[in-house]
Structures are given as C-alpha cells and as structure tokens.
Amino acid sequence: MLYAKVNENGVIVDVATSQSDEYKLLVAPNEPAVASILEKKFTAASTSTQEILAGSDGEMMRILEDLVDLLTEKRLIQFTELPLAAQKKLLGRKWVRGVHSGNDEGLMTDRELIEGDEDALI
Question: What is the predicted pLDDT for the residue at 73?
Fold first, then answer.
C-alpha cells in the first residue's frame, strides 16, 4: 500500500509505504502523479525494481501465510488441499515463528502432520 502526502492544493507531493499524520491518502502506484514520484525515488536511490521486489518478499510471504490461515479458519479451503511442498514450507515457517516468539505450543503437532524431508521445512 502507498500513502500520499498532499499539499494545501490537494496535489500529491510525496508517497510512503506507511500511513502517518503527513501521509494520509491511500493511492495506487499506477496513478500518474504517484508513478512519477516513485520513478524519481528509484532513480535517485539507484534502486532497481528487482531489489525492491526482493526486499518485499518476506513481507509478502507473511501476508500469504496469514491469508492461508484465514482461508482455512473460515473453511474455504482445507490445508491438505495445498501441494505437499507448500504445506511443508508453511508449517515449517509457522513452527520457526512460534519458536522465535516463544510460543511453540501446538506447533509440533502441525509439523508432524507432514511427513518428509525436514530440510524442506524452512
């Protein structure tokens, strides 16, 4: 998500990835004014789009994990309908997050649901 900072005339003057007192307006990256600002920022920072995508991969993975959890909680999908490799990755990441946060209760039973190569868990 992108949030825009606007001047007193309502013109977008800057964008940021997080909302704040200055950056209140939710905007789409393909809006001409927003795209122009983003292009200038990428050029000024000499950051390639590949670097930006790589930097957001971890955030996107967490979003996808949360989405899978939500869909399974609402019983819109069954976890076992996912490919085995995806199940292993998701359970492995869930287990690691639980250990990292000190809350690994019940995660081992989830992990044991999937048999196979332990190296594929992370």
Answer: 95
